Structures are given as C-alpha cells and as structure tokens.
C-alpha cells in the first residue's frame, strides 16, 4: 500500500512571537504550580522543550492521534538558559505504568490494540524530508540514548548508523560488557545491512508517556524526542532500561509481532560498546 503524504507543517514562529508567547506562559506559570491551569489548560515548560515538540504534537493530532491540542509555543530566559514552553489543552487519564497492574485483561488488550493502531497510522505517511533522519521540522534531534543527546540531521540511515557508532569504544580497554568485545562489535554492525523505512516517531514511547482512562488510551504525551527515525527505533529504544520480562517490552514486541528482534540484539551490543559515553551526557 503506497504511503500517504504527510500533512503540511505549520509556519514556524519568529523570535519575537516566541518571546511574546514565552512571557505570557511565564506569567501564567508564576500564578500556578506544576503547569496546571484553570479552564482545562496545561503548560509544559522545561529546558528541553522546543518548537519541534509543539509541531510534532500538532502533526500527530492532525493524523488523528490522541494528543494535547497546542495553543501556543514560547520561550523565555532563566539564568542564561532558554526555557521552552507549550500552552496546551489538558487531557484526562493516568499514566499507564501506574495503573497497568490494576487493569483487567480485556482493558490491557484494548490498550495494546489501540497503541498498535496509532503506530500504524504514524507509519503510513512518507517522510517529507526524503531519507533524512531529522526532527519533525527538519532540524536537529534530541534523544536521551545518543551522545551527544542533541545531534544534527543525518542524510540517511547509513549516516545515522555511523553517528550511533561515534561514541563506541575503539578497543577493549576498560570494556566491561556482558558480550565479548569483538562479538559486540560484529553484532552492532549487523544493523548496517538492515535497511528500514524512515517513519514518524515519538522517540520516547515508554508506558509513562501514555495516559489511559476506563481501559482506553486518552493521550500520548511528551513529544520532545519526536522526529523521523528508522522504524525499529520506536520499539527498541524503550527496552533499553527495562527487564525483557516486564509488561512494556512484552507489549511493544506483541504489537509489532516481535518484528525487530534482530535489531534489538544489535542495539544491545551497541549500548554495551557505548554505555560509558552515553551515561556521561
């Protein structure tokens, strides 16, 4: 089935527009705690929040995903740092990781089926930036599992693979991985021969970033790492710090028919080779 054309991106804001909105957001935040506002509004404001996140949310919502409605994006400065902020509609629900144990088997199946459906929607659109691995707006990406955590666009998956190997140790000196060093190197480079579609990706699809209520997904939140990535990234990234026997890795494997089992083994090797470097960022 041919891929659909991704919707047109909104016009990016000027610096003056960001500053004005940021000042307004800060005024609202100074009056409330934790970003929760009256009139069913919410503000997310962090050092990592950037316009790409707001646009990613707008695009995801345009595709029909359950995502906060964005009203404005702004920036202000604190102690020499740029603080981004998003004024959005508040969404009902509780974090999936906090309520999963108390859900019925039928509710768990429903949530898994809904998540599979939403991922299918995201993967049914072509990358407007061609083969480039980049943010939703075509710029730099932010990820908690790369070093550096902010990195420039990669022309294609091959360039992205090269970037991922940037922080891998070149020798076994000081290596303490569970996989023998030479085997880890061999296994990590197997990804070079596994071509993938570059798809619209949340990038941090942990269970705490999914809100549920009455056995249904009400929102997918925290799109700060969103962008265009190889298709396996969405599934393997959340498994890095979790036991393979915990419910979330099992859920991700289930909704994709464990399609990325080989990629996950490559990822494990890559993580062991670059563990010290990534931990330092």
UniProtKB/TrEMBL annotation:
Which Pfam families does the record match to this protein? APH
- Where is the Aminoglycoside phosphotransferase domain positioned along the sequence? 46-236
Which protein is depicted? Answer: Aminoglycoside phosphotransferase domain-containing protein
Gene3D superfamilies (UniProt xref) = 3.90.1200.10
Superkingdom, taxonomy of origin: Eukaryota
């Amino acid at each position: 089935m041919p891929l659909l054309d991704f919707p047109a991106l909104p016009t990016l804001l000027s610096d003056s527009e960001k500053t004005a909105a940021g000042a307004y957001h800060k005024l609202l935040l100074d009056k409330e705690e934790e970003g929760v506002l009256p009139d069913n509004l919410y503000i997310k404001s962090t050092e990592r929040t950037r316009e790409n996140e707001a646009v990613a949310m707008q695009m995801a919502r345009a595709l029909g995903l359950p995502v906060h409605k964005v009203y404005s994006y702004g920036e202000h400065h604190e102690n020499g740092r740029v603080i981004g902020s998003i004024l959005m509609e508040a969404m009902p629900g509780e974090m999936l990781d906090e309520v999963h144990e108390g859900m019925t088997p039928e509710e768990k199946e429903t949530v898994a089926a809904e998540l599979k459906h939403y991922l299918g929607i995201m993967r049914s659109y072509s990358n407007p930036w061609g083969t480039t691995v980049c943010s939703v707006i075509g710029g730099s990406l932010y990820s908690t599992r790369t070093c550096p955590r902010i990195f420039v666009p990669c022309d294609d998956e091959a360039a992205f693979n090269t970037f991922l190997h940037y922080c891998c140790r070149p020798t076994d000196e000081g290596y303490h991985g569970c996989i023998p060093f030479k085997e880890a190197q061999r296994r990590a480079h197997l990804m070079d021969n596994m071509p993938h579609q570059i798809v619209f990706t949340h990038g941090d699809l942990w269970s705490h970033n999914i809100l549920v209520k009455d056995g249904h997904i009400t929102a997918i939140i925290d799109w700060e790492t969103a962008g265009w990535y190889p298709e396996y990234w969405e599934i393997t990234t959340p498994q890095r710090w979790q036991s393979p026997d915990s419910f979330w890795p099992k859920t991700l494997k289930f909704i994709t028919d464990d399609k990325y089992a080989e990629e996950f083994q490559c990822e494990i090797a890559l993580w062991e080779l670059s563990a010290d470097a990534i931990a330092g960022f």
